[in-house]
Every structure is written in structure tokens, then in C-alpha cells.
Amino acid sequence: MIRRAPRSLGEHAPILFPALMLVVFFVIPFGLMIAVSVARRIPGGFYEPDLVLANYERFLSAFFGGVLSFSLELAALVAVVAVGIGFPFTYRLARLPRAAQVRWLVFLLSILSLSEVIIGFAWSTLLSRTAGITNLLVAVGLMAEPQSLSPSFGALLAGMVYQAFPYTVLVLYPALARLDPALVEASRTLGASPLKAFFTVVVPAQRNTIVATLIMAFVFALGSYLLPQLLGRPQHWTLSVLITDQAIYQSNMPFAAAMAVFLVLVSLALVGLSLLFGRKEEA
Amino acid sequence: MLRWLNSLMAGLIGLILAAPILVVAGVSLNAKRSLDFPPKGLSPAWYAEIFTDPGWRGALVASLVVAASSAALAVAIAFPLAWFIWRWRAPWARAFEVLGMAPFILPPVITALGFLSFWSTFGQYGEPWTVVVSHAVFFVTLPLVTLSLGFGAVDRSFVEAASTMGADDRTVLRTVVMPLVRPYMISGFAFAFVLSLNEYIVAYMVAGFTLETLPIKIFNALRYGYTPTMAAVTVLFVLLTAAVFGLIARFGDLPRLLGAWIKAD
């Protein structure tokens, strides 16, 4: 079997089905969304094809600016916390015996695949008055009576870090599992303490990985669409929530699509940036 | 000292990760229709309700059918693509690989909105089968990644040997390549299955008003107040998810699937 460029139609045939599926069900919906974003809205939930920029002009309002800056700040905060805890954690994880690693990975994957509905429900229960952790504080005498901690900004942050943490660990895992152990051994032989070796050898060596992971976690957190509704107050709504709200409840598809196009551009720029950092690491 | 501190940190992280699930598990056992923790009285009634109540049972069946068929379709899309890229020297085909990765990296609400525009433009909005196709394309990334790893792991000298002995592409695929990539194919299916089972926003935007999957049912029920049944469903989901990943770990190489290989060259 020689690996050369395919020539005949028969040799090309296997890629026809996947290519068709991806073009019809991903490229076309994407193009349609862009078309809808410049469509003109007809009151009553419909829209007709047009080329108006009115939906994009709404970005200039103070309300939208507020939502956008809150979304970006929240996603940045979640990314920093998740990577701050996740990096040392993953470094240790990658050095555990294989069986223990596999157990942790199964656990992390299970949490990562949990629906946002379930994470939101579980956290609001954990922070509720009747079943929440304040009952524990009351039991040990630190608090007079149980109270509800959700909805609040703290609850939202906790839920989003909880959601982003397994993702962050799994993004960091390949790089840290492949880290050359000789690096740390050398610094230890030269007399560095384990902590010093971690901060002066491992962290600088993985600087680009850390930046790339921060960006990936940021994009991941930007995508959170239910937790702000379940754990936060209306002023904690993010761009993703606003898009869902406009599309489903306000029946304003053109405006929702315009915001989505904007979100795509932000995300693509960031993912491109993180690939750039990731590539530097390999060079 | 540091070792001890490390174990403490790992234990603490494990505890925080498990805490919401543990509380929900406790709540799901309440004897009365209340969300108390520790539970007041023990009762498995809420678990029974998932299977006896037509609403919950219907949602469970809908979720399982959608997850199984969309995962199968995702593998059917990913397999020929990954095989083609491995078999032929065709750099342009990588563009389709990127297309397959995109929905997974972008915020999910974008893909959801894209599908909503698509299905409503073609008059299929709300048809249950559209959820299957949407999920298959949304999650095609997972079998695509596992299968690319699988094909990459096939020793080409086996293939050379087979074709020297006169086997054509089809025979090589069936007798040499297929047995080697099968574990990766099953993992890819399982990943897509579990994620489809838990997926909310795409299913909701595409057919949320006609087809109630379990996450949609839980979210709709949340608006009318929390019940222990929701807690029981959550526990059932967590167990199902952990069981699937446990099986992948048992029969496949999980660290490798997640990227922990040593570079050969």
C-alpha cells in the first residue's frame, strides 16, 4: 500500500459522506446564521433577508457593553482560578502511579460531561438553606442558623470554576504528562527544594502551555449558558445567556445571530492565539 | 511534609468535586417530598418514579435513543474521514478535520443557534430526528480524535506485509486495520454517547418544544420547584457516565486517549 495522493473517483469516494455531512450540517448553518444576523426583523418573531447592520448597532448600547464586559471579566476570573488550581494539581496527577491516574481521569471526565443543568441543580442544592453547607456550619457552632448562599456572584463563580476545572486539567494533562522528568531531577540534584524546582523550572518551562490553557479555559467559560441563570442574579447574565434569551424568549433571531457572530469572532481570535502559543512550545 | 501537603490538597480537591454530587445523592433519598440534607427518612421511591412516571420514563428513553443514534452517526462520519487522511496523502482533507473539531471548541450556544437557523429555514424545526443529526455533527470531534489516534497507532509494516501478500485496501482494512482501531472506535462512540446524553442547549434550541430529553426535562422541572426525583435522575446520570468512562478505562488506554503519549521521534 503506497501512501500517495488519491487519483480516481473511487479513491476519493470514502471522504464524500463525511465531507457532505460537515458542509451541509456545519458550514451551511454557520453561513445561515451570518445571513440572519444582517436580516431585517419583522415584529412577531420572523425576519426577512436583507442587509441591515441595525443588529450590530445595538452592540453600542450601554446595556450590551455592560453584559459584554461582565462576561469577559467573569470568564477571565474563572480561567485564572481554574488554571491556578489546575496546574499544580495536573503536575502531581501526571506523576501518580498509572492506576491512580486512571481513577482520577475517570472521575474528572465524569464531571466534565455532566450537563450544565445538573451542575447548576447540584450547586444550588449544595448552597441551599435546607440541604446546604451552612447546615454543617450550624452543626459545628460557627453559624446561628442555616441560610441560602445562592443565587449570588460567589455561587456562580464556584459553579463555573467547578465546570471549568476538569476541562483545564484535561487540556494541561498532555503537556505535563510529557514533561521531561530529567529537568526536575537536575534541579533537585543541584539542591533546589521541590517547591523551588516547581516554580523555577516547571512553571517557566511550561509558560506557553499555561497561557494557551488560560485562553482555552476562558473560551470554555464564555460558553457557559445556564449557570448564570441558575446560580446568578439577572445582573450576572452573560453573553451566552443573552443570546439564548433573545433567540428563544424574545424571538429576536437577527439580534441573537449578530451577538453569536461576534462571539465566534472573539472565540476564533482567542483560539488562534492559543494555538500560536501551543506551537511555540513544540518548537 | 510536602508529600503530606500534596495528598491533603488532592483530597480536598476530590472532596470539593464530589460534594455537590454527594449532597444531591443524599437529597434523593428523602422520604418526603422535600430537599433536606441529611435526608429525613430513607426511601428509594424517587428512583422508582423515574421508571414509573410516564414523563420521566419518556425523557429517559428519548435521551438514550438520541444519544445512541447520534453517537453511531458521529462514528459513521468520523471513521471514513480519519481513515482517508491516514490512507492517502491529501493535505486538503485536513480542512474537513478542522471543520469536525470546530463545533467542540466554539461556545456551544453558537452551534445551537446555527442549527436553529438551519432547521427553521428548511422547515424541519422541532422534528425529533433533527436532534440526532445536530448532536452527531456537534460531537463528531470525539470519535474523530480517538480514531485519528487509533489510525496513528497502526504499525504501517503490518499493512505493508498484508499488501505485499496481495491484500487490497478493503481486505487490509477488514483484517488488519479494523481489529487494531476497534477499541478507539468504541471509545469515540462512548464519549459521544455520554456527552449527547448530557447535552442541553443544542437539543433545546432544535426541538426543545417537541422532544423532551432528560436535561431539558430537569430544566423545565426546575422552574416549578426542586423535587427529589430530579436529584435521583442526577445520581442515575452520574453513575451511568462514570460507568461508561470506567469501561473505556478498563478496555482502552485512557491516558493515551487523553494525550499522554511519549513522542517517538
List the helices and strands and how they pair.
The complex is a heterodimer of chains A (283) and B (265).
Chain A: H1 9-37, E1 40-42, E2 46-48, H2 54-57, H3 62-93, H4 98-112, H5 116-126, H6 134-139, H7 153-177, H8 181-189, H9 194-205, H10 207-222, H11 227-231, H12 239-249, H13 253-282
Antiparallel strand pairs in A: 1-2
Helix pairs in contact in A: 1-13, 3-7, 3-10, 4-7, 5-7, 7-10, 8-9, 10-13, 12-13
Chain B: H1 2-27, H2 45-52, H3 54-87, H4 94-105, H5 108-121, H6 128-138, H7 141-152, H8 156-164, H9 169-198, H10 201-207, H11 214-223, H12 228-251, H13 254-257
Helix pairs in contact in B: 1-12, 2-3, 2-12, 3-4, 3-6, 3-7, 3-9, 3-11, 4-7, 5-10, 6-10, 7-9, 8-9, 9-12
What does this structure look like?
The complex is a heterodimer of chains A (283) and B (265). With 283 residues, chain A is an all-alpha fold. Chain A is built from 13 helices and two strands; from the N terminus they run αββαααααααααααα. In chain A, a hairpin with a 3-residue loop joins β1 (40-42) and β2 (46-48). The longest helix of chain A is centred in the first third of the chain and has 32 residues, at 62-93. Chain B folds into two domains: 1-43; 54-257, MetI-like fold (Orthogonal Bundle), CATH 1.10.3720.10. In chain B, 76% of the residues lie in helices and 0% in strands. Chain B has 13 helices and no strands. Chain B has helices at residues 2-27, 45-52, 54-87, 94-105, 108-121, 128-138, 141-152, 156-164, 169-198, 201-207, 214-223, 228-251, 254-257. Chain B is globular and about 70 Å long. The two termini of chain B are 38 Å apart. The model of chain B has no long low-confidence stretch (mean pLDDT 86).
